[in-house]
Structures
1.
Amino acid sequence: IYTLGIDIGSTASKCVMLADGKEIVAKSLISVGAGTSGPQRAISEVLEQAGKSKDEMAFVLATGYGRNSLEEIADAQMSELSCHAKGATFLFPQVHTVVDIGGQDVKILQVENGVMTNFVMNDKCAAGTGRFLDVMARVLEVKVQDLGMLGAQSTKQVEISSTCTVFAESEVISQLSMGTDKRDIINGIHRSVASRVAGLAHRVGIRDQVVMTGGVAQNSGVVKALEEALGHEVHISPLTQYNGALGAALFAYQKYQKAQRA
Amino acid sequence: IYTLGIDIGSTASKCVMLADGKEIVAKSLISVGAGTSGPQRAISEVLEQAGKSKDEMAFVLATGYGRNSLEEIADAQMSELSCHAKGATFLFPQVHTVVDIGGQDVKILQVENGVMTNFVMNDKCAAGTGRFLDVMARVLEVKVQDLGMLGAQSTKQVEISSTCTVFAESEVISQLSMGTDKRDIINGIHRSVASRVAGLAHRVGIRDQVVMTGGVAQNSGVVKALEEALGHEVHISPLTQYNGALGAALFAYQKYQKAQRA
Ligand code: SF4
């Protein structure tokens, strides 16, 4: 039995195919999100990887910001909060806190036995989100995917005191003009993101295990800074980028089973 | 008796010379602020305009973000909140609310008989400040001082739904790519600033007369949008840009008188 989970975010589309609700058969990530061809391409890529057709899918479930655009294709939709809790529990059965930093938002979820029990979210302010890192990478003229590696080479503490993306950008520009090493600035940027996210996380409380998901979890510098800011170990996995889509595929399997019983 | 008030902001330095605590003899505005030659140039310009020397000044008082850098020159320092309340009351004796939008911050002051009785301030977030308008003007490739004139020519309502500077910038870019008229976008930007500032103002309450000060008061589009958002007439004067420096010069006169009596 094959099920498909699709997560349509603001900046990326992800798709996961599951066999029997427990084995990941294929996964895809297209770097464009809602309102583009991304969702369709993410699905096609997964089907192709698995050598399956859409008709062989027992249930297709969509989640994420742009999930409503898939009404033609998906059998059901669910909120990304539920799917993230579900996906994280599949990857880390002992998870109690999920920190999801996406391209444009930050969500902190409390999880109890795979179910989300409380959450806090910021989608109004770019500070602490992937967008903050995008802006800084552009000013520093480095690739956003190189930030983690570069920040790890920092040898001096540089403080970025503004949390606001706009004011922090000015601080970075002035640090650059003072000749400060980019790698030290990057390390300061990672700590700025971590302190912003930790402030949000303290509103719901943090309990072990803490799992970080979303695109920014690929940045090892932010993960490390977040461990320091939270005082908790932060677990990641190469699969956490697919966490929402994975949760959606798991729910798709549940829904398929329920439909069979009915 | 001549007194000097100097207001050193983050983006501009202003200086006002008063005769006998009631008549403005000279004023200057230099578009660079704290940490530059701006403060010194603002003072020199005023002295030159009036044909006076620094020694002829009975009392010199500094205010604003960068006031501590003038300890050598100024006889005293005072907070910009007190000076803004004082200056606004000189210009508008019936003032009860001062809305000051500067280059990097927004302050709302409640004023009773020339004295500040309550205030609320945002200096952590660029939204609603002059910086927000700078960012938008850059994206739109227009001069920030032309925004008021251009927005007044708008014929269609365009909504900028994000308050965050970073997310609003993306909205503006996408409006431009859709071919939306710049003047309509600018009008939407003015309403965004006004709604942000009104949200802040409601925290302290708004009582007539409402006076708007700071650099952004030069933008007639923001003034008009603020009148709509607050539901109150908003008073401005060409002198409100000098409001902090004017208040400082008024306090300088008071301090001079007090010193004479002692
Ligand atoms: S603090 Fe900065 S990044 Fe956050 S909402 Fe304000 S302008 Fe946007």
2.
Amino acid sequence: MADPLPPGSTIGILGGGQLGRMLAQAAAKLGLRACVMAPERDSPAFDVAAAHICADYDDEGALRRLAEEADVVTFEFENVTARALEVLESATRVAPPRRALEITQDRIAEKSFVDGLGLATAPWAPVSGRAALRQALERLAGMGEHGPFFLKMARQGYDGKGQMRLAGADDLGEAADWLGERAAVLEGAVAFEIELSMVAVRAADGQMAFYDPPHNTHRSGVLHESLVPASIPASVVEQAQDHARSIAEALDYVGVIAVEMFLEGSGEGFRLSINEIAPRVHNSGHWTIEACTVSQFENHIRAVAGWPLGSTRRHSDARMVNLLGRDVDAAFTLIAENPARSLHLYGKREARPGRKMGHFVEILPRKEC
Amino acid sequence: MADPLPPGSTIGILGGGQLGRMLAQAAAKLGLRACVMAPERDSPAFDVAAAHICADYDDEGALRRLAEEADVVTFEFENVTARALEVLESATRVAPPRRALEITQDRIAEKSFVDGLGLATAPWAPVSGRAALRQALERLAGMGEHGPFFLKMARQGYDGKGQMRLAGADDLGEAADWLGERAAVLEGAVAFEIELSMVAVRAADGQMAFYDPPHNTHRSGVLHESLVPASIPASVVEQAQDHARSIAEALDYVGVIAVEMFLEGSGEGFRLSINEIAPRVHNSGHWTIEACTVSQFENHIRAVAGWPLGSTRRHSDARMVNLLGRDVDAAFTLIAENPARSLHLYGKREARPGRKMGHFVEILPRKEC
């Protein structure tokens, strides 16, 4: 890693959605310029960035321009093609590192990587197209798993998209039709108590810091609410931090990383398994803007710019609620009925059903002490 | 006042410095577009605004374009000419209102206005050019003021610029040379204990909210540090809020207003006099981004957009320190030695002596309870 980038340097950001937007805002706060590349003309991040390039992610000329303009390039999503990474890396620094993106954009690679670290995952088997489904099912049966199962596409899935649930072996035909020739993983269902996410940041020098894990609630596979503090025992939090550290160190990671985990059991017999790794800032860390000294967005920028990390300490109890689709119409009411709600709207014009339009963070009253 | 502006509306901002920059960032957070007009090509606010107009403040064509683009126009400074206000008002809404700008951009008008409200000011007399100086001095002598005095230009002064100190009548010749034919006020010095600022916000419907008054420390007339909480008795804070309310109501004000006051004496015999009114967000309110639920910048935007105000509650103790000129070279060290420091750099290229380049806000450790 080179020296810290001086103020006035340019952070290239691939992806122009709300994550890119909040990254660009964090860069500007630190006196860094943001150059955002995204294909949509009305990308939310364009409005807050010093420069932008409107181009498809596989446009090599555009990628080269981004790399030339930027002192480091970072990402709001993990689905960056190997070719795009090659073009970017040939001309500038890239963070997080290529390997982190390659592994996390493919569920088979990701689960193999986690297994290789000796960390727990849900029982799983790789599936290379419909013909391999029965064999995967038998493999899971051999582990004592007889359903329900989740069949998840190896690539491009997010927010519950790209997956289907199988009650048991009877659903095999339907699953085969759905899968076709795509690669996937078949997972046994985990009877978890809590789904928690550990949002951590790793600096270029290896220093790490961790945000408090929120209690996340999902609706239709999409994050609805994050609540901090969650009632998670300190021993679980400690192990979750250790897991995130193992993962980040094995990837020689730089930036913010979010690790989603399942917590099974309670008391001393708990089991913490890795569900998914996101090599980026994460929806379940949005509350850090309001409730922490330095947010996940600012710490990601600090890390990729080679700057010292800021404190991840949480100074307030808080609740983050996503506004999806037409939820956004209630924005005025939501802030009028409680002035302790800090509102974020992403500047998206069309409130399509389920689309992430904004969120609010409510600072909760301090408990008397 | 019209209905609340819908998300996606445009906030016009006259002025492109750090205040305009933080206003534009607050607008973007709320899903509003910012269009910034300022004369300097590398204005700090341009980099974070959806649109900008690079033109002189008296360029009527440019002002008209700004008014056409914007659903409301607001300001980062008070020195807006009557003609510019006329052009803007002929095509769009303006907030804060014209009268607030007219009064606060002229010390004579401002002090007369404050006197008219029955609020205390330092003993003062208007001075219309050098020939009127001796008469002003005699008038102050009649109030029992024999020096030292401050001679302050009626217009364009800020951050201690545009003023000189007179030890007494002996300095009259020097003062006359300095003043020339400009208008000014001559003030008796106030032996204040604390210089405090009340940053308040008033919504279009008259609702008001107040931030905690920080203890401000100046260096060479420029704000150096704001500390919250200040040790100011509750009765003083209450009176300071009442004064700010009187001023804002008399101006039918909309937006953030900052009132600088001098506190003389302590205990029940205290006296709170009005030093200066700034019809805008204020340097002594920068700490509100980190330490309050909703910052002064966001509340200003909410108010001028006709939105509900957010809570001004302070959730943390904090210290804001300005980085002037080459102070900014120490930015890395400042954040490395204390991770609880949130850094703001304004993206200014040239670190001229005394120029406001950035600031940091340090979240202070919570006192045990």
